[in-house]
């Protein structure tokens, strides 16, 4: 079961990543529609997922959170968010939502809650994120939240048997605060 509540949105809750989440994270990373979009090019074992959790537990420069839907019984994990390199002036944001929950606005809400936290709790200039150009859902999340397209790395990654562009997006503090 996902960990303690960290932040709440209207429909999603961000919870800490716990050792018990290894199976969920492995399932997400190994799902073809998630892993490929993240640029993962090999299957991940539960042991590797567990090692990844342990490697990030005491790292103050990275924040990893499980995105959950709250229901009467217990929270249902539907995705994961990460905020990496908090010591940089523009940390990087990463996220994924299981395919059966995509298209419902959960990803946008979860990322919005994390962006708000990032600007409220850290002295950062802005945030950055990248996506494969064909990943319209991920690009849509960023554009909906006011991120600006800052560049394209042409044919930067090999995905699904072909090279695809990687697009970079950024959001500065004053852009977020003026929204």
Short recap of the structure:
With 179 residues, the protein is of the alpha+beta class. The protein is built from six helices and eight strands.
Summarize this structure as a short list of keywords or feature phrases.
8-stranded mixed beta sheet; 8 strands; 179 residues; Aminopeptidase; alpha+beta; 6 helices; single chain
Question: Can you put this structure into words, describing what you see?
Answer:
The protein is of the alpha+beta class. Helix content is 32%, strand content 34%. The chain has a single domain, classed as Gcn5-related N-acetyltransferase (GNAT) (Aminopeptidase, 3-Layer(aba) Sandwich), CATH 3.40.630.30. It has an eight-stranded mixed β-sheet, sandwiched between helices. A hairpin with a 3-residue loop joins strand 1 and strand 2. Helix 1 packs across helix 3. The model has no long low-confidence stretch (mean pLDDT 89).
Major sheet: arrangement of strands = 1-2-3-4-5-6-8-7
CATH fold naming: Aminopeptidase
List the uncertain runs.
Answer: none
Largest sheet, described in full? 8 strands, mixed
Rg from alpha-carbon coordinates: 16 Å
CATH C-level class? Alpha Beta
Order of helices and strands: EEHHHEEEHEHEEH
Number of helices: 6
Helix content: 25-40%
* Percentage beta strand: 25-35%
Q: Looking at the structure, what is the overall shape?
A: globular
CATH architecture: 3-Layer(aba) Sandwich
Q: How many strand segments?
A: 8
User: How many structural domains can be distinguished in the coordinates?
Assistant: 1
Mean pLDDT, to the nearest integer, reads 89
What's the end-to-end separation, in Å? Answer: 35 Å
């Amino acid at each position: 079961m996902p960990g303690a509540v960290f932040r709440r949105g209207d429909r999603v809750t961000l919870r800490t990543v716990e050792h018990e989440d290894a199976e969920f994270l492995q399932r997400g990373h190994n799902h073809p529609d998630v892993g490929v979009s993240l640029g993962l090019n090999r299957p991940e074992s539960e042991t590797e997922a567990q090692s990844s959790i342990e490697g990030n537990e005491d790292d103050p420069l990275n924040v990893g959170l499980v995105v959950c839907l709250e229901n009467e019984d217990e929270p249902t994990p539907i995705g994961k968010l990460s905020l990496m390199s908090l010591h940089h002036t523009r940390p990087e944001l990463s996220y994924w939502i299981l395919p059966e929950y995509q298209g419902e606005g959960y990803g946008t809400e979860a990322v919005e809650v994390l962006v708000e936290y990032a600007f409220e709790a850290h002295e950062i200039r802005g945030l950055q994120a990248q996506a494969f150009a064909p990943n319209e859902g991920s690009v849509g999340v960023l554009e909906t939240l006011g991120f600006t397209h800052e560049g394209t790395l042409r044919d930067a990654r090999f995905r699904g048997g072909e090279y695809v562009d990687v697009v970079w997006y950024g959001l500065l503090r004053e852009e977020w605060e003026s929204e």
